[in-house]
Amino acid sequence: MIEPIEHAADILSKAKSAVALTGAGISVESGIPPFRGKGGLWEKIDPMKVAHIDAFLDDPETVWKLLIKDMKTLLDTARPNPGHIGLVDLERLGILKTVITQNVDGLHQMAGNSDVIEFHGNFAWQSCLDCNQSIKTSQVDLTQMPPRCSCGGILRPDCVFFGEMIPHDALIRSQRVSAACDAMLVIGTSALVQPAATMPLIAKDNGAVIIEINPEPTPLTSRISDLPLLGGAGSIMPRLLKAIRRRRPST
Ligand code: OAD
User: Which residues, judged by CB distance below 6 Å to any ligand atom, belong to the binding site of ligand 1?
Assistant: First the structure.
């Protein structure tokens, strides 16, 4: 029987418009903990108390202290890992067109992917709740909690909190590229948060092959994924790329 990774390499080496849907798991090997599962952030703190927009607006100081401040420290030093690099290699081989990411860490762009849809916004920027001015997260003064804009208004990250809408352009483009892709790589997502988790269903419904990379099974694994590859993205992606290059020796 052909090994699943070889089978996935067969499919991808012939694909021309693959799309990746990524989640927190792809950044685990960059030192950023996931939300769910082993070592997940939501095991330690209740997301409804720190990641819901109502919680933030009720008590921004607590949400900054419990969540956003630590996130800033982590993301300031995080660098792409072989999982991210594998997606850049796939783009350079002309196989991968777009990355849809639920992550706000900017690591796909840092690695070098050129078309990244940030489904849940990004952490690189903050907006003032009063004057709406944008400020780079790297320039935020953390000595006062919650941090404030020069106008005195409270700053919030440009990320989607629970209870908020997905940015319109990100949602529409994600649906469009999912419907048009010939293969979808679903990497490091628990596939429990909607509407991101619908993208593999849209892709499959339109004839794409679904390749899933995750050390644990997810709700997609038995019903939607055609090729589940069990393991961490940082070890599976280099093996997958090696198998693809063997099939395309000139690239
Ligand atoms: P989760 O934390 O829900 O799931 C992470 C997934 O990554 C799990 O299925 C793990 O098994 C898997 N994983 C762990 N280590 C891995 C590795 N080395 N390689 C590959 N996979 C690995 O993360 P998301 O699905 O991204 O939303 O969560 C979706 C959304 O829920 C997030 O964007 C965030 C969160 O609450 C908002 O903040 C709006």
Answer: 23-26, 28-29, 34-37, 40, 47, 51, 102, 120, 160, 162, 187-190, 192-193, 213-216, 218, 232-234
Rg for the chain, CA atoms, rounded: 19
Q: Which of 7, 84, 108, 120 is catalytic?
A: 120
What's the 27 CA to ligand 1 centre distance in angstroms? 9
Ligand 1: residue whose CA is nearest its atom 26: 23
pLDDT tens digit sequence for 23-48: 999 999 999 999 998 889 999 999 99
* Ramachandran bin of 217, using left for φ above 0, alpha for ψ from -120 to 50, beta for the remaining angles: beta
Q: Is the pLDDT of residue 114 over 90?
A: yes
Location of structure tokens 């409270």: 154
Percent of the chain scored above 90 by pLDDT? 96
Look at phi and psi of residue 31 and say left if phi exceeds 0, alpha if psi is from -120 to 50, else beta.
left
Question: Is 84 a known active-site residue?
Answer: no
> Residue 103 C-alpha to ligand 1 middle, in angstroms?
9
184-209: per-residue pLDDT in tens?
Answer: 999 999 999 999 999 999 999 999 99
Structure pTM? 0.97
Q: How far is the CA of 33 from the centre of ligand 1 (A)?
A: 9
Q: What is the pLDDT of residue 37?
A: 86
